Structure formats: structure tokens, C-alpha cells
Amino acid sequence: GENVEQHPSTLSVQEGDSAVIKCTYSDSASNYFPWYKQELGKRPQLIIDIRSNVGEKKDQRIAVTLNKTAKHFSLHITETQPEDSAVYFCAASRTGTASKLTFGTGTRLQVTL
Amino acid sequence: DSGVTQTPKHLITATGQRVTLRCSPRSGDLSVYWYQQSLDQGLQFLIQYYNGEERAKGNILERFSAQQFPDLHSELNLSSLELGDSALYFCASSVSPEPSGNTIYFGEGSWLTVV
Q1: How many contacts does A have with B, using Cβ atoms within 8 A?
Q2: Choosing among A38, A43, A45, A66, which should be mutated to test the B contact, i.e. which has the most B CBs within 10 A?
Q3: How many contiguous H segments (helices) and E segments (strands) does chain A have?
């Protein structure tokens, strides 16, 4: 089955700096890559996703890049703010019968003043 | 508010007991997913139902079972509980049977503590 590895496990940046979180996946058939943000004690919420027919997608301060050849994708947050502090999860899924959304182990992002 | 409703929000029970967690998906969603999140751990996929039928299975223990009813709500049954079953159990829902087909929305979770 799919295996998703996520790095780093913790990341501390100063307010205004950029943050980058990287994930690799094992199943070359995976074609959907969402990112979820989970604040402490809250539910995971989708913040951005990308499909395999696109190399990059941007939404305001958040961008995601995908390298299908290397089987890795990254989340980029620019101009970080204290409210960006949370745990971020990447995930991957393929299309087809019994396909599953497999999550990475999460990155705890701390934005300091 | 995602529209996915989970009950109970918190539950404390003893080892060896059985509990049932309930989930109502967003209006119009036919898929229901169950995930387990242990302390400082990621989201472990347990099982998915689509329109009443089991669609995909993850790392769900034999002591655990689930079902989706005709009104599309779902229940996750956890039996012979062990201390290690203490976790946050999330239900999620989506319109499509495939995770890649659309956004998956999570409920607020049910905190289970086994003592």
C-alpha cells in the first residue's frame, strides 16, 4: 500500500519568514495530494490540494509543488503569521477501487514573534 | 463547522468495555471515513463506507467494527477496549466514493479515554 513520509516533524520559524514542509510517497499511481491543517484539539481542515496533472498550485500565501518523477510534494507558506502555528499533514491517494487517503505523520509548525 | 457531526465528544470507559461512536455526514455526502489519531500521532485510516457498503479497509483491528445505515449515518464499535485504544477518533465525509474525487471534511472528533 501507499506510504507517505513527511519532514520535518517540527519546524520553528520567525514571523514573516517562509516555511517549507516536504513529503514523499511510494505509490507511483497516486494522483491526488491534499494538505490539511490541524490546530490544537481541532479537526483537520483542507488548506490546499494538487492533482498529478499539475506541477504547482498557489492560494495566497500557500503553495504546493509536485514532482511526480521523484514522487515528492511540498507545502510552502510565505510571510508566516502566528495563526499559521498548527500541525500540517500531507496525504496521498490514487484513483480506483478501495483507494485510500494515506496521511503523513505531520509537521508541527511554530511561528514565533 | 464542517457539517460532519460526531457524538459523543468525550468518553471515558474502562478496559474490556465496549463503546459506540456515532457520525452523521454532511448533507448530501455518501462516503463516511473513520480515522484514529493517537497522542502526537498521525491520522490512521480505519475504514470507509460508501452509500451503505464497505468500500475500503485500513488498519482496523478485529475488535473494531463499523457500519453505515440507510440514512447514511455511521457507527464505529470498539470492543474489548485496551489502554492503547485511547485516542481521538475522527469521522469524515465526502460526496464521492474515491478520496481523490473531492474534498473530505472532518468532524470534530470523539475523544476516547480508556482507564
Answers
A1: 59
A2: A43
A3: 0, 11
What pLDDT does residue A54 have? 85
Q: pLDDT digit string (tens) for A48-58?
A: 999 988 899 99
Q: Chain B within 8 Å of A49 (Cβ-Cβ)?
A: yes
Cross-chain residue pair A103–B43, CB shorter than 8 Å? yes
Tell me phi and psi for residue B99, to 5 degrees.
-60, -30
Pairing of strands B110-114, B10-13: parallel
Average pLDDT of chain A, as a whole number: 94
Compare CB distances from A99 to B56, B103, B107 and report the shortest one's residue. Answer: B56
Q: What is the mean pLDDT of residues B50-55?
A: 95
Contacts of B58 in chain A (CB under 8 A): 100
Phi-psi category of A98—alpha, beta or left, where left has phi over 0 and alpha has psi -120 to 50?
A: left
pLDDT of B40 reads: 67
Residue A63 forms beta bridges with which residues? A58, A76
Gap between the Cα atoms of B61 and B3, Å rounded: 28
Give the model's confidence band at A73: pLDDT under 50 very low, under 70 low, under 90 confident, else very high.
Answer: very high
Q: Is the minimum CB–CB distance between A53 and chain B shorter than 8 Å?
A: no
Q: How far apart are CA B109 and CA B6, in angstroms?
A: 6
Which distant-in-sequence residues (6+ apart) come within 8 Å of B108 by Cβ? Answer: A42, A43, B2, B4, B6, B9
| Mean residue pLDDT across chain B | 95
